[in-house]
Design brief:
homodimer; 184 residues; mainly alpha; Arc Repressor Mutant, subunit A; 3 domains; three-stranded antiparallel sheet; 70% helix; DNA-binding
DNA sequence: CTAAAGTTTCAATAATTTCTGAACGTTTAA
DNA sequence: TTAAACGTTCAGAAATTATTGAAACTTTAG
């Protein structure tokens, strides 16, 4: 497939950013290409367009599927697999977020939980223990929060984001209401 | 310096996670070590404790300083530089967040802004243009939002996070109030 | 000024990650 | 049953990234 220069530069950019986003160059490129493509693409089309080997396309797609970012589509009377993004931009971003949190935060959280189980044995450990506890609390709060945000509908979430720091004013508002009348 | 097994395993974990968090193994270890240490450490102490070369310590510290995660302290009558975390756990997490957003989002945002300037030249570009616009909007909203959250005091932010998806109820509350009485 | 104590830089090397392509597996049309 | 069309795997090669250590640089005490 032939890409217009503007699309090509976007796809290549996705490649360059790939490793920063948690995967590698090829995988970034494949994802960029699929998002920019109106119709699903076969492994062959992907490989030719990006000049990468059959094997690499296969591995890349597999990885993207493990991130739940790509789905497979079949066309009647055609034995090829066709690939397309597994949802809207919004959903994709969400998945990247979830998946990264799983890989970047969960292991640390579980290490910290273990480490905090038994009491510090000396002054050095006491200090470290305290620090680990802070990190643990921070990560817990953050994890819970993002999990809850995921459960909010995109529309509400957009409203919330547009509100920005204005949300503080509303928190104050709530405090006033709670103080002057209704129970919490 | 000699680390107790529990602290050592935490520091090593920071090393393993390092690359997922946006830096490399050594840098993760150095940061972990500094956070766990009650007193500032010299380059020598860091290198010995982690068994890494002088040069590597120097480069690692430099990188951590570029992330604004480590500060230098001097002790009267001592020519060595001593290093310590540049703030509370909370502040550190914030910096990592900001810094990563700068590296992971900003370049894409600027590419998209450029790409969206001129009109699509054909059907393929028209579709891609639309997709880029969606991504652009998403990233803009997200960037603005996180920037605003940064401006909220840690206490308020904690309240907000603890509230979780309960924040939606408050949004509804606000809507009711606005509708029935005061102007926005 | 000189030497000692420290830090930084960077070319060479080591370690790790990614990519290729050939071999193998599977499905289906004939 | 065969062979063509496709997907997958994985050992080795290529590319990239991290690390070392020696040389250069900086600061300061004497």
């Amino acid at each position: 497939m032939n890409l217009s220069p503007k699309i090509e530069s976007f796809v290549m950019h996705c490649g360059e950013m790939g490793s920063r986003w948690g995967f590698n160059r090829t995988i970034g490129q494949i994802m960029g290409l699929l998002v920019m493509s109106e119709k699903p693409l076969s492994a062959n089309e992907i490989g030719e367009t990006l000049s990468i080997s059959r094997g690499n396309v296969s591995m890349g797609i597999k990885e993207l599927q493990s991130w739940r970012l790509v789905s497979t589509q079949h066309i009647a009377g055609d034995r090829k697999d066709y690939y397309l993004p597994a949802g809207s931009i919004w959903e994709l971003a969400n998945r990247v977020f979830e998946e990264r949190s799983k890989r970047e935060v969960d292991p640390t959280l579980s290490l910290l939980r273990d480490a905090l189980l038994d009491d510090p044995a000396n002054a050095q450990e006491a200090y470290a223990h305290q620090r680990m506890d802070e990190i643990h609390q921070l990560l817990e709060t953050l994890t819970k929060w993002t999990a809850e945000l995921q459960s909010i509908s995109p529309e509400k979430l957009t409203t919330l984001m547009k509100l920005g720091s204005g949300v503080v004013r509303i928190l104050d508002l709530k405090d006033r209401i709670v103080k002057t009348g209704s129970a919490d």
